[in-house]
Design a protein that fits this description.
The protein has 14 helices and 11 strands. By secondary structure, the protein is an alpha/beta fold. A 7-stranded mixed beta sheet has the order 5-4-3-6-9-11-10, sandwiched between helices. Strands 1-2 form a two-stranded antiparallel ribbon. Helix 1 runs antiparallel to helix 2 and helix 13 runs parallel beside helix 14. The protein is elongated, with a radius of gyration of 22 Å. It binds S-adenosylmethionine.
């Protein structure tokens, strides 16, 4: 019987993935093996001669078979890393993307530049796994330069199953004092103006963050198999043009905007930023609109100063 050690099985898996044209063959092989052996990727290389036992081999084989079906690694391992936290994910929620991490830096920068006097109310629309809201809550008090002010984060989604995952993540990641300041609400973008919620938060939100679905029907057809077959369509597809949800948010959010200190932050597709700017100007009439580039120098975060 063949004996498999870390080196031989990695070589085999990388080669196998390459032959089957699986994206990122080395990364896939290493991440899956790291998880099976509970070793970091670097430690795989320091344990090249470690022999795999029967259970480890069986689990690795199971993961490899899933990867051959193009299942994203995060869904195979049921975990995704985002900034400083590790989230539970499954095919019910979008896998949080590295470029989305930038929106949190922007939130913290605004809080540093505009030390507000009272409580800060932050609203996230379309929370998915909870990546953005939980990161804000997790990092806010430790962030250097942010005044020690009271805060609250409200995160919405229109999908009850998604919110269950987000809430589970929040409970697992945050300590109880922070968990209490984060509230999840099921609604269409934001609660209607005849709700008790509105009575509480009319003109009260200082920062509104959203990475909404912004893919057009045409672009959706051309997405890679990994995304189209496994990630929730409702988290990606906005409609025929891709601007439908942005427009709905801008219209629906107006009565919630604080007249004192208020910013709307959108993640955007680089190809949509010019039209989104125009739409935001027309609907909100903001003081300023800025764009932050991602690590590839592409327009990524739109900052609308109300
Ligand atoms: C692109 S995903 C973003 C998820 C997460 N915020 C992130 O950045 O990884 C968009 C999210 O918006 C939610 N969504 C779509 N339409 C919505 C609506 N009308 N009201 C509230 N949430 C909505 C989807 O369920 C999904 O979780």
């Amino acid at each position: 019987m063949q004996i498999w050690n870390v080196k031989s099985i990695l070589d085999w898996a990388i080669n196998y993935f390459k032959n089957k044209e699986i994206p990122h063959p080395r990364l896939s092989a290493e991440l899956l093996l790291s998880s099976v052996l509970k070793l970091t990727r670097i430690n795989l290389y320091l344990n090249y001669n470690r022999v795999l036992n029967k259970q480890e081999l069986a689990l690795y084989k199971k993961y490899i078979l899933k990867r051959l079906q193009h299942v994203p690694i995060q869904y195979i391992l049921k975990e995704a890393y985002f900034r400083k936290i590790k989230l539970y994910v499954d095919t019910g929620v979008l896998i949080p993307r590295p470029e989305t991490e930038l929106i949190i830096d922007k939130v913290f920068q605004l809080l540093k530049d505009n030390p507000a006097m009272g409580k800060i109310n932050i609203l996230e629309i379309g929370t998915g796994s909870g990546a953005i809201s939980i990161s804000i809550a997790y990092e806010i008090s430790g962030e250097l330069g942010i005044p020690d002010i009271p805060w609250q984060v409200i995160a919405t989604d229109n999908n009850a199953g998604v919110l269950e995952i987000a809430e589970k993540n929040a409970r697992d990641i945050l300590d109880s004092s922070k968990f209490e300041k984060l509230e999840f609400i099921e609604c269409d973008l934001v609660p209607e103006t005849d709700s008790d919620f509105f009575k509480c938060f009319e003109k009260k939100f200082n920062i509104i963050v959203s990475n909404p679905p912004y893919i057009s029907e045409e672009d959706y057809k051309n997405l890679p198999r990994e995304i189209k077959e496994y990630e929730p369509k409702s988290a990606l597809l906005a409609g025929e043009t891709g601007f439908e949800i942005y427009e709905k948010i801008l219209l629906k959010i107006k009565p919630y905007l604080s007249p004192e200190f208020c910013y709307i932050l959108f993640e955007t597709d680089p190809g949509k930023s010019t039209s989104l700017r125009k739409m935001s100007e027309d609907i909100i009439g903001p003081k300023t609109i800025g764009i932050e580039k991602d690590h590839n120098q592409r327009d990524r975060i739109m900052i609308i100063e109300v």
